[in-house]
Specification:
4 helices; flat; two-stranded parallel ribbon; mainly alpha
Length: 71
């Protein structure tokens, strides 16, 4: 994973249109994600992505995506 090769946060961006896209970036090692173009199409998409991430975490019995080395 790229995030293991660097000592800076990795921010996932480009093509994030829904919660699934954001989750894939996070699972690949992104510390954060940026939603851009999707907000022009659907201004409240960030809120929907947050809800989708929360639902994903609940389904998988997790409180966060925190990696074990983060604390």
């Amino acid at each position: 994973m790229c995030y293991k090769a660097v000592k800076v946060p990795v921010i996932g961006m480009g093509g994030i249109m829904n919660a699934t896209d954001a989750i894939e970036f996070i699972l690949a090692g992104s510390t954060a994600v940026q939603v851009g173009t999707a907000t022009f199409i659907q201004p409240d998409i960030s809120l929907q992505i947050i809800d989708g991430i929360e639902q994903y975490l609940e389904r998988h019995g997790c409180k966060s995506f925190m990696r074990s080395w983060e604390g």
